[in-house]
Amino acid sequence: MKKNLLFGIMLSLVVSVSAQAREFLVKYKPLAYTQLLSMYGMNIKDTNHEGQYIKVNIPDNIEAKVISDLFGSGNVETVVPNYKLYALRAPYTTQTLKQQWHIAKVSADKAWAKAGNKGSSKVRVAVIDTGVDYNHEALKSNMESGYDFHTDKPDPMDVTSQDNPGHGTHCAGIVGATGVIEGGTIGISPEVTIIPIRFIGEDGSGDLNNAIKAIDFAISKKVDVISASWGAPTTRSQAQLLLEAIKRADDKGIIFVAAASNDGENNDKVEMYPANAGFTNTISVAASNSKDEKPYWSNYGKATVHLAAPGEEIMSTIPKNGYKNLSGTSMATPLVSGLVALMKAQDQSLTGTQIKAILQSTGAKVKIETQCNCRVDALKAIEVILDKKMYIAPVAGTYALNSKVSFDAFNTNGNVIWNSSNDKVLKISSSGQAEAISKGEAVISATDEKGNKVESLTIYVGKGASGPINEPGPGEPTDPNQPAPQPGECPLGDPELCKFLCMVQPDAPFCK
User: Does the active-site annotation cover 330?
Assistant: First the structure.
């Protein structure tokens, strides 16, 4: 699908090359910071101590020499351009009456009735985006102070333009509009705390460095959920520093919800980040419409996209007390983020693995290709939590040959007996440790001492319904803890520059 037909705002990484110099992010090895400060030809513009990298300007005429020296010094792990990220404005429609079909579709009202609440202000959601109109009548009572990394000021106000209809404010409303304003809208978790973090400007662009700083800020604010309605088609090595920031969030137990993108592409074959991050606490979201069908523009993927949620013609808040319909996986993502917040309000101890498994196992079956082929159902998810229904985690997935997976059963009575429907594909031990033996598919089941039995969804080894994924690339599940550049993969955005550097520095990590 062509980019000018995209719905919602997604981001595409584009190298920004100036006439005289361009910016790079240089990740340094521990204790090497002072040595890097003495490197010639570099103007150090920013430092990220959490990510252990610096942002530098390198003049074009000595770019190859400086990068070669950096690798040759033994003090750096990687060098990547500070890519520009451009928000892609999508067409949208308006309607006179504010109808919120998605609230009824996912049975949110019934979930609130079951829970006896509509969330909790103790649950904190970071909306990392174009900022939020924190004075909006339907949002202000749920807002907490945030930050604007685009201008480096403590004011994350969402500034509208032809390129930004109020994307971040719209996302925030889907998460947690209060529902108490006459003629307004309601979020899926109307009782919640939202932290607005801006790194995308009114012109629709922001850069990689500021995206990483936004994530680290969210971590420092001790949020429970990060909602990321943006992404980039790029290689894993290009996304390394972004992935390391997401991993820092993952290590703190923060659930990172990311949009699958709006290109109509299969993410098993097209690398999309952060959606394809693949960490324990990441959830990648496709879009569904009011008929539970996939809009033609939504990305999908049996191996890499976890579930679907309503994302077409979604009515929500926009700046200056406005409301508007927007469409995209950008809208589906905060709906899932808000639902995660609602679930955490019922049981704060739930992990990302558990929440993902509950959403996948309880979702309504739809013909949208994801790990579960499902669309989220808020009521059924809340019922599992409050009625303590038995479930397995993980409950779906695609795994590489010879990989090992640990399965757990929750809300059981006594010991559990594990079984695989095809132990020649996926063999499981009495303790729930499984090993991927050969390509194929299997279903894992758990039976407790009272005879209660639950089954996983289809688990794939080496391939999924999307087709073969055993070749190197986005389809082959990788170890997300090791996002370093692969041999032969140029992280600099310039294959000729990498080729030259490999001649003078053959042991650089991207050289074969």
Answer: yes
Residue 387: which residues within 8 A CB-CB, separation 6 or more?
none
Active site residue 205: no
Q: 190 preceded by cis ω (within 30°)?
A: no
pTM: 0.83
**Quick check: is 49 catalytic?**
no
pLDDT in tens, 423-479: 999 999 999 999 999 999 999 999 999 999 999 999 999 854 333 333 333 333 333
Distance CA 424, CA 436 (A): 9
Catalytic residue among 12, 68, 107, 129: 129
Point out the catalytic residue in the list 12, 288, 330, 466: 330
Kindly list the structural domains of the chain, giving each domain's residue range(s) and its CATH number in brackets, ordered by start.
10-82+482-504 (3.30.70.80), 92-386 (3.40.50.200), 391-468 (2.60.40.1080)
Strand partners, 416: 448
Between CA 402 and CA 427 the distance in angstroms is 11
Give the angle 187-368-364 at the CA atoms, nearest 5°: 55
**N-terminal to C-terminal alpha carbon distance within the chain:** 34
